[in-house]
Amino acid sequence: MRIAILGATGAVGQELLVLLQERGFPVAELLPLASPRSAGQELDWRGERLRVQPVGADAFEGIDLVLASAGGSVSRQWAPVAVAAGAVVVDNSSAFRMDPAVPLVVPEVNPQAAFAHGGIIANPNCTTILLTLALAPLAARRPIRRVVVSTYQSASGAGARAMEELRDLSRTVLDGGEPVSTVLPHSLAFNLFLHNSPLQPSGYCEEELKMLHETRKIMGLPDLRLSATCVRVPVLRAHSEAVNIAFEEPFPVAEARELLAAAPGVELIENFETNRFPMPTDVTGRDPVAVGRIRQDLSDPCALELWLCGDQIRKGAALNAIQIAELLRDPAAADAATGGAA
User: Fold this and answer.
1) Is the distance from CB of 306 to CB of 3 less than 8 angstroms?
2) CA distance 23 to 318
3) H or E element that contains 2
4) Residue 126 catalytic?
5) pTM higher than 0.90 for the full model?
6) Is 205 marked active-site?
């Protein structure tokens, strides 16, 4: 396939390059694209140096697949152009996620949705991807009544510049200096703050509402009751989530643990004797979403509590996009993606 990466110089774009090679995706030609400001940079690809080209009206001629990770405004401008040129676009921005005509896909959860695309497939928000991987196998066994989730989101969710700022300002604090943030609204060094996406009239921020609406769409549960509180924490690239799930009936912990341990894309990490459960360092640079500390909610006999961690750049963005592309190449892989439950 002839593949273009739109936003090739960003953190997710860089990870897409790595994963295309790691997973042996059949690439006949790779075209890295970026804004005119970033064009001209050189990237490593299979031992060669590729020059980043500026995105333009003719950039997508002859391209089969576009992996886009350059922000909503860029995707809204160029995704229709790419589709008109004959390409399929897997878009990592929020531009098309809630468009009813655009599938929103997590391959382990709703792979068949990918095949209903009209040229564009949306990659969900990172926190939503991680959450639905844990919810889906449980919801398939017993109906979910309500979800309450608190997220602990890494700097990578705000991009490569935010990651570098966290490194720099951490050194500043350790050297006794005063950290001054220019990328994020507050310094993340030895600090945390509520997610900085725009607040809505409801009092929830955009990030929290993304989790609500995207989870409903992916899981086909339009009336799912979900409340999220999103927090930015001083971790480089792995998100964590504390999740409370209320079901319509009691859900034995042992049964939930067995389902999650066998779920595609999920890794169980828990040892109650040693108090050892998932940590961001367990998943950084790795594909699985680690789940653990599954327990009965003492306040509700029909509710469970669990904790999860996942690499935001990898499964939370680049890996999920490439898995969608793999589905399109091999429709038979849809069953395998869900462990045969698709």
Assistant:
1) no
2) 12
3) strand 2-6
4) yes
5) yes
6) no
Q: Out of 117, 126, 195, 205, which one is annotated catalytic?
A: 126
**Superfamily of the domain at 128-312:** Dihydrodipicolinate Reductase; domain 2 (3.30.360.10)
Options 3.40.50.300, 3.40.50.720, 3.40.50.2300, 3.20.20.70; which CATH number does 2-124+317-337 get?
A: 3.40.50.720
- Over range 131-153, report the average pLDDT: 98
- Region 52-62: mean pLDDT is 94
pLDDT in tens, 238-288: 999 999 999 999 999 999 999 999 999 999 999 999 999 999 999 999 999
Q: Is 113 left (phi over 0), alpha (psi -120 to 50) or beta?
A: alpha
Annotated catalytic residue: which of 195, 205, 230, 239? Answer: 239
Per DSSP, 271 falls in state: B
- Report how far residue 33's alpha carbon sits from residue 41's, in angstroms, rounded to the nearest whole number: 10
The DSSP secondary-structure symbol of 318 reads: I
Q: What is the pLDDT of residues 32-45, one digit of tens each?
A: 999 888 888 999 99
Say if residue 180 is exposed, middle or buried (CB neighbours under 10 Å; 0-12, 13-18, 19+).
exposed
Q: How many Cβ atoms sit within 10 Å of the Cβ of residue 193?
A: 13
Output phi, psi for 278, to 5 deg: -55, 145
How far apart are alpha carbons 75 and 63 in whole angstroms?
16
